[in-house]
């Protein structure tokens, strides 16, 4: 079980600047691998602080470099665009399965990340148990005595240790957060939609409005419009993806596809907006995620086409 005790700082302006500087240094090094001045500049830059070194390691790993790589033979000329494209194609991938500048920034923010189809159980100091879903990222910001985590990307299951005097706060994207004294619940963030389902106790979801969600209830919140949808289902189905099933109830296909795609390599694109808005219900077995995706698309009359090993497209033709 992963430890959640080590914290990473928020990605502030200084860290963003260091990230840009590190990318430029990688480009300079790759274009002139034997240039003494370049190597000395890199060495001096890395030695300026622990934060400089940490950012360098992140960027270097994303491009498949290591300490020994500084002595490798020259490779084709590199540009900032090529660096990002290479990351997107998976060179140096392994944490989220698809790199690029946004993913490097995400990695700097996150305390824990998962790869495609990977589930990561962890336990916080207060006894709260978390299962981080695939292609997901979580951070543990220091808010003093407040119990708080931030789901940066993806999905997670929370079994919160009861403590009525210190509510557990989960920060989500789009200015949304949840609060509970000790519930068990799942949350996912897919295609701009927050899905929350509660198995035990009660969770308050806070966006532009506040919603109290009890055991056996779910809520779906569009973070752009603030529009909520609610319903009920067996609380035991919350977090069913941990045992190989994804549950959908009148859910937009685009949102469901984004969730199932966390078990698939590469990207899945919904190219037809009308198909993406179609509502889908059912249980989907993600032990075979490709088949699960096909089953989700079938009721819409759409077609799933595998363009390459790293790209699938859903369209009407």
Automatic annotation (TrEMBL):
Record's keyword annotation contains Transmembrane: yes
**Protein origin, superkingdom:** Bacteria
**Entry's InterPro entries?**
FecR (IPR006860), Ferrdict_sens_TM (IPR012373)
Q: Where are the transmembrane segments?
A: 83-101
| Residue stretches making up the FecR protein domain | 114-204
Q: Name one Pfam family in it.
A: FecR
GO MF terms here are: sigma factor antagonist activity
User: Which key words tag this protein in UniProt?
Assistant: Membrane, Transmembrane, Transmembrane helix
The cross-references to PANTHER family, in alphabetical order and at most eight, read:
PERIPLASMIC SIGNAL SENSOR AND SIGMA FACTOR ACTIVATOR FECR-RELATED, PROTEIN FECR
What is the protein name for this chain?
A: FecR family protein
Species of provenance = Paracoccus versutus (Thiobacillus versutus)
